[in-house]
Amino acid sequence: MLFATVSRGKKVGTRLLPHLFQDNRYRVQLGKQGPYIPITDYREIPSYLANGYSLLMSNRADSQTPSLIRPQSIQGWSANVRDLFFRSR
Predict the structure, then answer these.
(1) CA–CA distance, 64 with 47 (Å, rounded to integer)
(2) Would you state the torsion angle of the CA atoms of residues 62, 66, 67, 72, taken in this order, to the nearest 10 degrees?
């Protein structure tokens, strides 16, 4: 499971999860100004993180708007290519 923890501000310690938008997609983008890429399958997110894309994450329980989180701040995934894919044998 992918998650990040708020490290500053009023909500320090709040856990953020990938934000699922109304169109049932997650969104990644290369920078704040760049266009976003919609992702339908949750399992594809780590491969985008490994390529430097940031992920929009939020905490729905706190009615928090999505924040763009850099891959270095997201836990629950690995940049190692061998860890990204399941081995067949």
Answers:
(1) 26
(2) 90
Six token digits for residue 34:
């760049």
User: Taking a C-beta distance cutoff of 8 angstroms, is the pair 16, 69 a contact?
Assistant: yes
pLDDT at 63 over 80: no
First to last CA, the chain: 23
**Matching residue, tokens 């708007």:** 65
**pLDDT tens per residue across span 20-57:** 999 999 999 998 888 999 999 999 999 999 999 999 99
Q: How far apart (Å, rounded) are the C-alpha atoms in residues 17 and 9?
A: 18
Predicted TM-score (pTM) of the model is: 0.83
